[in-house]
Amino acid sequence: MHYYFIISVFLFCLGLYFSITAKNFILVLIGIELILNATNLNLVAFDVLNQNSEGKMASLFVILVAACETAVALAIILNVYRYIKTMNPEQV
Length: 92
Hints:
Elements: H1 2-21, H2 25-50, H3 54-84
């Protein structure tokens, strides 16, 4: 059971690294998605550990929020790219 938590910590750290050191906005989004997936893995692991379904419901809610966040962020990125012609967060 503790392997799920180790994988979740690894995913969270990898997502945090991508979010901080990314050279374009797409990698920042990938980092945020990795962080949200680490959260989902923890929720489901605690759900299995506690034998209830609250973690699965919360995980579905996190997946819904992540999908909406990705759609809005991609729309913003495309509009920023249209006007500024760069994907580098440091130049925006």
